[in-house]
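Extended Data, panel c. Modelled sequence:
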Amino acid sequence: MKKKKINKDKIIIPSILIVFVLLIIISIDIDNRKDSNQGIIKDFVIFIEKVAQYPFNAFDKDKDKDQSNSKIIKENINSDIEKDNRELRDVLELNKTLTEFIPINATILSRNKSYWFNTMTIDKGSSSGIEKNMAVVTKNGLIGKISNVSKHSSEIKLITSDDINFKISIAIKTNDVDNYAILNGYDKETGLIKATGIDKTTNINQGDTVVTSGLGEMFPSGIYIGKVEKTESDKYDLSKTIYIKTDQNYNSIHYVTVLKVK
């Protein structure tokens, strides 16, 4: 009797579909599981995503570029270094930029479409020296901080997050005076970052530079965030809300730099 010839396509295509469905199930499961295996499963999914993205990233000139090595980052960190160390360091040492930090360059792997402005996942984790609460920047300034870490991947909580518990201490530079506030909100309609905790009598001007204050944070002062776009008084006229315009395009971030303290 003649043996029936097996059509390889009929085996390969369904197999690929099954693997794809399994990966989707695993990805969904990651968001819900809180057991000790979550990091292992997540790293496996990240590995698959990296393989899928390799043809697109392999020849990208911006891949692995140090995002902290940009004029806007250097200028503002230099400004704070000069202010804090003017009496302690000579002129030559004042030219240092980011010498107290180890830049870890990373590629964005995935984002949750339902929470696009909340988090993003990068392809570096604890094996690369990344830890929770480290600052994350692009060439245009601060975008957030590390919120979760597994061995080969990490999650960034963005400053555009709608998480009311996510706060960053900032300094608004007005006429060489630092006015401190808390970054904790995002207006999706205007694309502006919100800051609160400013006394109504404090003088804040449109165009004032906003940077990290370094107070109570794992990352340094002087990381550029944006410029003051407008101010509003609360309904009781007791305090002000500051709206900040950043130079970031949060829809097209592909590469970031994590700042690790030496």
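The longest strand covers residues 177-187. This feature is highlighted in the accompanying rendering.
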